[in-house]
Amino acid sequence: MEASYRLSLYEQRIVLACIAQVRRDAPLTDQQLYTVSAQKIANETGVGLKTAYRHLKAASERLYRREVTLHEAPNGAGGGKVRLTRWVQTVEYREAEGMVALRFGTDMVPYLSQLSEQFTRYALEDVAKMTSAHAIRLYELLCQWRDAGKRKVSVEWLREALQLEERYGRIPDLKRWVIQPAIEQINEHSPLWVKWDQCKTGRRVSHLIFTFGEKKTGEIADKPRKPKRTAPQTKGALYGIPMANIEAKAQPGESYEDAALRILEERRSRSLYRDESPD
């Protein structure tokens, strides 16, 4: 089973935090409520508890509305089923306890169980250090392919797996804003090293080739290089914020959506600070 979806950084952290709670001797289930605390988010991001709870609440609300496409094909062959479903069926807010509780959707249990097995070999804390949603998703795919050590995928397949839709339509933009920052964060924060190359069909880049393996004990990854900013290419807006502003303020490896949500949160925090400040 493979899935195509797009989650923001905080949404991914919530899902992985829930998966981390599954005991080795107990199956992941759609009946249990898994909790994520604002304190955990605060520890990971360095923000205050109130801000962390707002992040957690907003992300869980978005996660409740998120769709995911599940592809099922016998033995990897074509002609399988495609199922559209949702991540969670229930969200509970426990403001007094500073946490959110989630109950996963029934159709997601087999996929999440598979995902849990993929991550048992690597510490989820390594993922928590990543600030790119694309890096976490690519790392998940590498864990899925870990026995192969090499994987060639079509650009269109990867775009669907990351649910990029119309974003980063040009190959240079895809490499600059998605692939290269993701590779740098995986090399810096995870137990894996990864290299990548591109393959052309005619003059068009049609496939990407990922080569990867486990780092040697004590190996230190090279410091990632920040990509140079270029003039904004995308028109329109996200959450009411012009794309030109989002691109100008986006951090390396940060998706447009994550950048827009961060900008909104910073604006709300400044507004709350002004409202709470004495005259």
Write a structural description:
Mean pLDDT is 78; it is low at 220-235 and 275-279. The strands form four sheets. The protein has a three-stranded antiparallel β-sheet with strand order 1-3-4. It has a three-stranded antiparallel β-sheet with strand order 2-6-5. The chain has ten helices and eleven strands. It starts with a strand and ends with a helix. The protein is of the alpha+beta class and 279 residues long. Helices cover 42% and strands 22% of the residues. It has helices spanning 9-19, 38-45, 49-65, 109-119, 124-128, 133-144, 155-161, 171-189, 243-249, 256-276; strands at 2-4, 34-37, 67-72, 81-86, 88-94, 99-104, 150-154, 192-201, 204-214, 237-238, 241-242. It has a domain at 1-120: Orthogonal Bundle (Arc Repressor Mutant, subunit A).
Fold blueprint:
Elements: E1 2-4, H1 9-19, E2 34-37, H2 38-45, H3 49-65, E3 67-72, E4 81-86, E5 88-94, E6 99-104, H4 109-119, H5 124-128, H6 133-144, E7 150-154, H7 155-161, H8 171-189, E8 192-201, E9 204-214, E10 237-238, E11 241-242, H9 243-249, H10 256-276
Antiparallel strand pairs: 1-3, 2-6, 3-4, 5-6, 7-9, 8-9, 10-11
